[in-house]
Write a structure and sequence with these properties.
Ferritin; Ferritin-like; mainly alpha; 61% helix; 5 helices; 181 residues; Spore_coat_CotF-like; globular; sporulation
Length: 181
């Protein structure tokens, strides 16, 4: 079964992105100081490798993988998230870059990689006619979404990613303006 033009181009872009992610995550894992961060990056890199290999395999012979929808059971409780700003550190580019990244830089890079991967995989899936390619791309998007949330939780727990809040009942008032039909 041949690929359509959109599928071929989208899969090409997703695979390029995945190669970059896998290569960068290997470097981040080596440079991370916190063992928990190293472990998280290692697991995320392994998942990216699986998605990459599945997509490459299927694109070569159209039979390498029959994807199932990925289910994730680990959902955080809203009570575990720290809301509000507590004197956040200023963020700016490093004036004199060094070869060694620090953990917060690594976390931001990993988080942004996952966010972009999720968006790009969803967008690519919308251009694909082949149902297996669509499902593989959606699985990769879901995986990136959950991995991004895991990085967010790690950063939030350490005060690296603070969640601003609104004054008083502003959010509630805004959201309660919508009524069921």
């Amino acid at each position: 079964m041949p690929f359509g033009a959109h599928e071929a181009l989208e899969v090409h872009e997703v695979l390029n992105e995945k190669v970059c992610m896998i290569d960068h995550f290997a470097q981040y894992e080596q440079q991370a100081g916190d063992p928990a961060l190293k472990d998280m990056i290692r697991r995320h890199r392994q998942a990216a490798l699986r998605h990459y290999n599945d997509l490459v395999s299927y694109s070569h012979d159209y039979a390498g993988v029959v994807p199932n929808e990925v289910q994730f059971s680990q959902v955080a409780s809203p009570n575990s998230i720290h809301y509000g700003l507590r004197n956040p550190n200023p963020v700016a580019p490093v004036a004199a870059p060094t070869a060694q990244l620090y953990d917060e830089q690594i976390c931001r890079a990993v988080l942004l990689s996952h966010k972009n991967s999720a968006k790009n995989n969803v967008a690519a899936s919308l251009e694909c006619a082949d149902p297996y390619i669509r499902q593989m791309l959606m699985n990769a998007a879901n995986s990136a979404n959950y991995h991004a949330y895991e990085v967010f939780e790690y950063m939030n727990r350490l005060g690296m990613y603070q969640v601003p809040t609104m004054q008083g009942h502003t959010a509630k008032t805004m959201l309660h303006s919508y009524q069921q039909y």
